[in-house]
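Subject: Interface between my chains keeps coming out wrong

I've been trying for a while to get a sensible model of this assembly. When I model each chain on its own everything looks fine, but I need the whole thing in one frame so I can look at the contacts. Pasting all components below, labels as-is. Any help appreciated, I'm running out of ideas.
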Amino acid sequence: MGAEPIISLRDVTKVYRQGSVDVHALRGLTMDVEAGEFTAICGPSGSGKTTMLNLIGALDAMTSGSIVLEGRELASLNKKELSELRRDRIGFVFQAYNLMPVLTAYENAEMVLWVQGVDGPSRRERVMGLLEQVGLKGMENRRPSELSGGQQQRVAIARAIASNPVVVLADEPTANVDSETAETLLDLMEELNREQGVTFVFSTHDPQVMERARRVVRLVDGRVASDERR
Amino acid sequence: MSGPNVATLAWRNLWRNRRRTLLTLGSIVFGVFLAVVFTAMQDKNWKDMIDLAARLGGGHVSLQHPEYLDKPTLTRTVVRGEALEAALESEARRIQHAVDRVIGPTMLATAGETFSAAFIAFDPEAEDETTLSILEAIDEGSALEPGDRNGVILGHRLASNLGMELGDKVVYTLTDKHGEIVSGLARLRGTLRTNAPTVDGGFCLLPIDTVRDLLGYGEDEATLVAVFVEDQRRSAGVAGRLGRELGGTAAAVPWNTSQPQLAAFIALKVGGAVIMEILIAILVAAGIFNTMFVSVMERLREFGIMLAIGWSPGRLFRMIMMESAWLAVLGLAGAFLITLGPYLYLSSTGLDMTAIYGGTVEVAGVGLDPVLKVGIFPRNAVLIALFAVLATIASGIYPAWRAGRVQPVETIKVV
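Reply #2:
Try treating it as a single job with all components included. I did that and got this:
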């Protein structure tokens, strides 16, 4: 592609302390993610996939190295700046959906915009459009408990992209749904990636997902073992 | 379709565990109910007792000879002259009445019997039940009429002991201003029935002008001027200011100094009730804290998600505090509704405790009404409401702070 990377990881290490033992989750990981990519991070359990997503998403701090997101070195940002970065520039999709149970589908998708301070009419226009786009038109007032797993994950995707983030980080987004639902979710993510240029980085074990990714990065023992672009 | 805001979110969070919220609200309502009823009983009972004690003798504040308190004899008097009137005028806003009284011991004798008694000499023209509550207890005959210089009212048992009927004569003997024994003759106009033994068996009322003449007092002289203030809680303040105004010419003694037994009794009871209320408040606050804390600990993962998607710790803190605030508002509203009915009943009808008391109970010479009524001072009601709100909100502070300290990466636990 040759474009300027939106995410750049250089010699990133992450060491957890478990009791008296140091666990090396990432060992000098280096990679770039460019705008518009549809990247799958795969690898065995304990290979560092989630740790990597957590570090890129500014949910955790690396032990050493450098992570730059849109030209900003994450290590140089304070808590407030990191919080604003997550709010404005990063979307998250979690394996267990993690929607707010007391909010409706509409309100869940709207929440990030509300936190951003976007005015009511703009929020409404944006969220209604998104829910239609993810196939949930007419279900705006349903709470998570009234939606299927696939529908909840669609709300989570709508929430993740509501603020027009530079990247959506998805952790095993299809792990909790059946293969048919997984297929439709992948269709949706692909469509958003293709038509709106949303950059996706997702971790997965699922061969079905890896097959759909245009770039597959395989991690082994906290390092990039292979990086395949299709 | 309106978007979520912190207040809405907090409200909905509150009802996620309906039973827990209702139990918490129940404890707030119960706590406030108990606090209001306890305080209202105290406020009413102590106010009535203090007012009654004041109306039985020395008023809320007694203006008296500087040495009268230590040695209350008929030789230690005050004169209601210009200085005293000026002092009273300076506090006119807080004073309802100021009446002259001569109070002391006497010996009553009829042809066949002799008994000692306490007496109050008062001006029948200037006073009625408002300032002299004992007049409410006349059960036979009538009160002293203005201008009646030879009448006497006796406790019914004293009259009976003296073998007197209405209209009979009695000789009363006093020690005058110069230490001489003097006597007067009076006819029985009425009897008192209070069920308080010290009053019924050893008390009489005399006209002040006659007693003044007998004792050799001037026309403005008395053993004390009984001052009645519009709110007994201001007695000490009024006494302090009157004392300063009077300089050394007379002492201004508040009821709690002139009636230390009654003051000690009330202080003891109030102190005990305050400790009880503090214990109730601690228990209620602990219950609310527990609810809030458990509710927060159950949602750590959710808070992690919220922080991950851009919520600030401050916004999370506000949301939990808003949950506490909702609890406080609902608890207070519930407490108001639950307390109102019983409060109105207790304030108007009251509970007849005769069966428990077994008749009138007397404390330091003041009879307790066997019908228990309530009447809270508005300031105390506001304080209870304020405390309930603050305690509820304060109970949320630590859980709210804890919520804001959540580390998303530790609580989300992805893969």
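Reply #3:
Confirming on my end. Strands of chain A lie at 5-18, 21-34, 38-42, 64-69, 72-73, 90-93, 167-171, 200-204, 215-220, 223-229.
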